[in-house]
Design a protein that fits this description.
This protein has helices at 31-42, 77-93, 114-125, 135-141, 164-177, 222-225, 306-319, 369-380, and strands at 23-27, 46-51, 66-69, 100-101, 105-109, 131-133, 152-156, 160-163, 181-184, 200-202, 208-210, 213-216, 235-244, 260-263, 273-276, 284-288, 328-338, 345-348, 355-359. It contains eight helices and 19 strands. The longest helix has 17 residues, at 77-93. The protein is of the alpha/beta class and 408 residues long. The protein has two domains: 16-61 and 165-234 and 341-396, 3-Layer(bba) Sandwich (FAD/NAD(P)-binding domain), CATH 3.50.50.60; 102-161 and 236-331, D-Amino Acid Oxidase, Chain A, domain 2, CATH 3.30.9. It is globular, with a radius of gyration of 21 Å.
Length: 408
C-alpha cells in the first residue's frame, strides 16, 4: 500500500491477457471517481484510475480538510437513504476512525423549521434519528453557542464529519492494494464520443488510455470534457472557507464538546452557514453555503476575499461570541460543482454506450462516495437501471424549480 510522503503511486499497466475481465478507466480520483474505481475493482474489473493533480488535490471539489456527513434532506428520501448507506460503508472502511468523526450535527432554525420536522419524519421512517431539543436544553449542552434568533434546535446523533483529502488518498491506497492501477494524467479536452463505443481517450502527454468502459467522474471539468452533453448543466462556483483560532485552553469549541453545526437562523445569503469544531491542527471551520461566483477551477486564484472575512467575523460575533476577535489561522477556496436542480448526474452517455458521466456533487456529494461507488459499479456491470432523477435527459425538460437551499 502506498504511504503518504514515501514512494510514489505505482502505475500498474493493464494486461492484454485479461481480456475476459472488463477493463474500466475511471477519470477523476475524488469522492465519486475514487469510490467507483474501488468498487469496480472489488467486483472483478481491471481498473485504471487517473487524475490530473492527484486524489483530494486543492483544485478538486473533493479537496480541502473536512466535509460534513449527515442524512437530513427534508423530504428527499433518496438522499437520506444514500447517506445512511454511505455512513454504514464509511464505518466499515474506517474502523479506527482515522477518517470519520461521529460528533453529531446540531441544526439551528429561525421561524421556519419545516425542514427539520420533515427530515425527522423521513429519518424515523428509516430507523434513524433527528431529535428536537428545547432552547434551554441546547443552551445548557452547547455552552459556547449563542442562540440569538434561534427558534428551534435539532440534533442528529448519527452524523459528523469526514477528513476529505485524507479520505481520497486512502481510497486510492486501497485501490492499489486490491489490484487496481492509478496514474496521474490528464485527459485532453474535449472527449469526442460520436460512435456507439469509445475505445480510447487522448491524454495531454500524447499517450492514449484504452478501456472497454469509461467512467468520467471529474467534477467541475465535466462541462469542458463534454460540452454538448453536460455543458452549462454543471457550474463551478467559488466557496470561501475559514478556520479561526480558539482561545487557549478552551475545549468548548472542539470535538467532542461541540458537534458539527448548521445554522439556518443567521441570515445567510442563501439559507445557511455551517461549520465543524476545531480538531487537530485545524481551527474552527466556518463557511457560508451560498453559491459564490462562477469560476474556472483550473486557473482561479485560491485566495479568500476580504469581504468574506468581514462577513464571517460578524457571524461569529453573533453565534459564537467568544470567537468575535479570534484570529484567522488558515483559509481555503473550495468549489461546488452544481447542477440546476442540485441532483447528481449518474448516467450513460447518450451516444456512446460504454461511457458513463458521474458528477454534479452540488456541494453535498462527498459523503455519499462509498454508496455512490456501489451504484456506479452496478450500473456499469448492468445490474441496475439509471434513476431518472440522476439522468441527463432531465435537462431537456423545462426546469421545475431548483432547491431553495443546498443541503451540504
Amino acid at each position: 500500500m502506498r504511504r503518504r510522503g514515501t514512494a510514489a503511486i505505482v502505475n500498474q499497466p493493464v494486461s492484454h491477457t485479461t481480456h475476459h475481465r472488463l477493463r474500466v478507466a475511471v477519470v477523476g480520483a475524488g469522492a465519486f471517481g475514487g469510490w467507483s474505481a474501488l468498487e469496480l475493482a472489488r467486483r472483478g474489473a481491471v481498473v485504471t484510475l487517473v487524475d490530473a493533480w492527484g486524489p483530494g488535490n486543492a483544485r478538486a471539489s473533493s479537496g480541502g480538510e473536512t466535509r460534513i456527513i449527515r442524512a437530513t434532506y427534508g423530504g428527499r428520501a433518496i438522499y437520506t437513504e444514500m447517506a445512511l448507506r454511505a455512513l454504514k460503508l464509511w464505518r466499515a472502511f474506517d474502523p479506527a476512525r482515522y477518517l470519520l468523526r461521529e460528533t453529531g450535527v446540531l441544526w439551528m432554525f429561525g421561524e421556519d423549521d419545516s425542514f427539520g420536522h420533515e427530515s425527522a419524519e423521513v429519518l424515523n421512517a428509516h430507523d434513524a434519528r433527528l431529535d428536537e431539543l428545547s432552547l434551554k436544553e441546547a443552551a445548557a449542552r452547547y455552552r459556547r453557542v449563542s442562540l440569538d434568533g434561534v427558534r428551534s434546535v435539532f440534533i442528529e446523533p448519527d452524523a459528523g464529519y469526514l477528513f476529505a483529502r485524507r479520505a481520497c488518498e486512502s481510497v486510492v491506497d486501497h485501490l492499489i492494494a486490491e489490484g487496481g492501477a492509478y496514474r496521474q494524467a490528464a485527459v485532453a479536452e474535449p472527449v469526442i464520443a460520436e460512435t456507439s463505443a469509445l475505445t480510447s481517450v487522448a491524454l495531454v502527454d500524447g499517450a492514449r488510455l484504452d478501456a472497454d468502459v469509461f467512467v468520467f467522474a471529474c467534477g467541475s471539468w465535466l462541462p469542458s470534457l463534454f460540452p454538448d452533453v453536460v455543458g452549462a448543466n454543471i457550474q463551478a462556483t467559488r466557496q470561501d472557507v475559514f478556520y479561526f483560532g480558539t482561545p487557549a485552553g478552551d475545549s468548548g469549541f472542539t470535538d467532542p464538546e461541540l458537534p458539527v453545526w448548521m445554522d439556518f437562523a443567521a441570515g445567510s445569503r442563501d439559507g445557511q452557514i455551517y461549520g465543524i469544531p476545531a480538531v487537530g491542527v485545524s481551527g474552527f471551520k466556518v463557511a457560508d453555503d451560498a453559491a459564490g461566483p462562477a469560476i474556472d477551477p483550473s486557473t482561479v486564484e485560491r485566495v479568500v476575499s476580504a469581504e468574506a472575512v468581514t462577513r464571517t467575523r460578524a457571524f461569529l460575533a453573533k453565534r459564537f461570541p467568544a470567537l468575535a476577535t479570534a484570529p484567522l489561522v488558515s483559509s481555503e477556496v473550495c468549489q461546488y460543482e452544481s447542477t440546476p436542480d442540485d441532483h447528481f448526474i449518474i448516467d450513460r452517455h447518450p451516444r456512446a454506450g460504454n461511457v458513463w458521466v458521474v458528477g454534479g456533487g452540488s456541494g453535498h456529494g462527498f459523503k455519499m462516495g462509498p454508496a455512490l461507488g456501489e451504484l456506479v459499479a452496478s450500473l456499469v456491470l448492468g445490474e441496475r437501471d439509471v434513476d431518472p432523477q440522476f439522468g441527463l435527459a432531465r435537462f431537456a425538460r423545462p426546469p421545475a424549480g431548483g432547491w431553495q437551499q443546498k443541503w451540504k
